[in-house]
Amino acid sequence: MNKLPSGLTTDLIPVVLAPMSGVTDAPFRRLARRYGASLTVTEMVASDRLAAGDEEAFERAACDAEGGVYAIQLAGCRPAWMAEAARIAEAQGASLIDINMGCPAKRVVGGYAGSALMRDLDIALSLIEAAISAVSVPVSVKMRRSVRLRARTNPQPVLHR
Ligand SMILES: Cc1cc2nc3c(=O)[nH]c(=O)nc-3n(C[C@H](O)[C@H](O)[C@H](O)COP(=O)(O)O)c2cc1C
């Protein structure tokens, strides 16, 4: 990453708490920071639900009471949702927006998000561009080394444009 999220400097301990669905909620992130994580990441947040104002999605994206440098991870496959969710995430206080392009879970891949995006680079690029143009904080992408490792859970997606 060329541009570091504000508040994160290279002299800080480079420990990043990976996004974990059902685990990295605000209290867990607070604990991780107390034990030395310099950047924490939320659970994956569905961009369409955040863009639609869903209460649970907002809770997942909520800024920690103590502050600190945190990233909000967004999942989805439509640029308009991604852009709107990224805007909301920045307004919530995120120092970094991370796009989930690695999740192999069936319910995510079945919605043409997560690692399904590694099979359609045009859509992947449009999501990245949508997020970048919507916010001023850095945007990162988390992906797997290969989608083939989980071939059974990664059907060829037909993305709806
Ligand atoms: C319970 C659990 C939930 C996870 N949820 C997410 C997620 O929401 N988004 C994501 O990008 N990765 C998710 N991951 C993957 C982790 O971020 C990480 O990439 C993976 O565990 C590999 O790291 P490790 O070798 O240190 O375990 C999850 C992993 C676990 C174990």
Secondary-structure arrangement, i.e. CATH architecture: Alpha-Beta Barrel
Distance, first to last CA: 29 Å
Q: Number of helix segments? A: 6
Helix content: 25-40%
Structural class computed from helices and strand pairing: alpha/beta
Q: What are the distinct ligands in this entry?
A: flavin mononucleotide
pLDDT average, as an integer? 85
Number of strands: 5
Low-pLDDT stretches are: 153-161
Computed over alpha carbons, the radius of gyration is 15 Å
Q: How are the strands of the largest sheet arranged?
A: 1-2-3-4-5
Largest sheet: 5 strands, parallel
CATH class, please? Alpha Beta
User: CATH H-level name... which superfamily?
Assistant: Aldolase class I
Strand content: 15-25%
The SSE order reads EHEHHEHEHHE
Q: Looking at CATH, which topology would you report?
A: TIM Barrel
The total domain count is 1
Provide structural commentary.
There is one protein chain. The chain has six helices and five strands; from the N terminus they run βαβααβαβααβ. It has one domain (16-153): Aldolase class I (TIM Barrel), CATH 3.20.20.70. The relative contact order is 0.15. The radius of gyration is 15 Å and the shape is globular. α4 (79-92) packs parallel to α6. 32% of the residues lie in helices and 17% in strands.
